Structure formats: structure tokens, C-alpha cells
Amino acid sequence: MLPDKAAMITLGKIIGVFGLQGWVKVYSYTAQQDDILRHKHWYLRQDNSWSETKVLAGKRHGKGLVAQLEQVADRDAALALNGVVIAVPRTDLPELSADEYYWADLIGLSVVTVENQSLGQIDYLFETGANDVMVVRGERERWLPWIMGDVVKSVDIAKGVITVDWDADF
């Protein structure tokens, strides 16, 4: 039985093929790039539906990762998976401490200033060398650094609100 969509956490995506034996190139969203390979079963989203697949092998290759998946025996089968999202059930992930969050839980939350002025909602997050950045879309797009305590003052997942110390005119 497949988990429901809300119970799935996206860990990466398939970005290409590797060789002729059905291996795929993987882009990992995990904090440590190869953490995605620790999961022996992935759920792949194609055509708005999930299918489970077994990860037979995986390794670093250059600056990226490659993986061999069950029932993907040749290059054509691997090509058919290009762009497919990789996820696992939330229950397969470790519990987080009180001040840690999965990005999937932050996307869509409202962002307000300490003066209670709405900036919009988190559209997505990305990582830089210095810190993570949240892209907030409201009347315009803003890029805010994810710096707990300095910029990000509080996160209330239950209420769906992140409070930031940020000038709304910036």
C-alpha cells in the first residue's frame, strides 16, 4: 500500500541516465548528498501518481550520484524516468529536534515581520554556501536568509506562520 501524498517527503529527483545498464543520475536535496542512498525503497512520482521501487545500488560519481533501480534494466527505461521526483514516507525519516525543520514542512507557510506585516508565503528554499535561503512570494518576491535567531525569530508549523525580523521595504 502506498502512503498518501501528504505523508511523502521529497528527497531528490532523477536528472538523467548513466551508461547503458539502466542506471540513473540523481540530484539529492538531502543535507548530505548521499543520504538519499540510505533509503532502500524510493517512491517515484510520475503522472501525478506514486510507485514504489527498490534501490539495488547507488554511489557517488564525480560531483553527483548514480543509482540502479529495480526493473530499470536499460538506457531507454532509465530515460523514461528523467525528471521524476524521488520521495520517501515521512515515517522513514529521523525525528528532528525542536529547532529543526524539513523544508517540505516550511513550503507554503506565511511569513510575517515582527511588526506583523505579511510578506507572503514560502514558495521554495535553496541552499547557498553561507546559509539556506527562503523565497517568499507575496506582492513581490523576496529572498530571505534562513538564520535562526537573527532573521527567523519563530516558526509555528501548527499555525502556519514564520515570524522574521525583516524590513518589508527591503
How are the SSEs placed, and which strands pair?
Blueprint: E1 8-18, E2 23-28, E3 41-46, E4 49-61, E5 64-69, H1 75-79, E6 85-89, H2 103-106, E7 110-113, E8 118-127, E9 132-137, E10 141-146, E11 152-156, E12 161-164
Parallel strand pairs: 7-12
Antiparallel strand pairs: 1-2, 1-6, 2-5, 3-4, 3-6, 4-5, 7-8, 8-9, 9-10, 11-12
Molecular structure report:
This protein is mainly beta and 170 residues long. The protein folds into 2 domains: 88 residues, Elongation Factor Tu (Ef-tu), domain 3 (Beta Barrel), CATH 2.40.30.60; 62 residues, Roll (SH3 type barrels), CATH 2.30.30. It is built from 2 helices and 12 strands, in the order βββββαβαββββββ. The strands form 2 sheets. A 6-stranded antiparallel barrel has the order 1-2-5-4-3-6. Strands 10-9-8-7-12-11 form a 6-stranded mixed β-sheet, with no helix packed on it. The radius of gyration is 18 Å and the shape is elongated. It starts with 7 loop residues before the first strand and ends in a 6-residue tail after the last strand. The model has no long low-confidence stretch (mean pLDDT 91).
What's a concise summary of this model?
By secondary structure, the protein is mainly beta. The protein is 5% helix and 48% strand.
Q: Tell me the radius of gyration.
A: 18 Å
Amount of helix: under 10%
The SS-based structural class is mainly beta
Shape: elongated
* Named CATH architecture of the largest domain: Beta Barrel
Number of helices: 2
State the low-pLDDT regions, or none: none
The main sheet comes to: 6 strands, antiparallel, barrel
Mean of residue pLDDT? 91
Count of individual domains: 2
Order of helices and strands: EEEEEHEHEEEEEE
Within CATH, the superfamily of the largest domain carries the name RimM
How would you classify the quaternary structure?
single chain
Provide the β-strand percentage band: over 45%
CATH class of the largest domain: Mainly Beta
User: What is the name of the CATH topology of the largest domain?
Assistant: Elongation Factor Tu (Ef-tu), domain 3
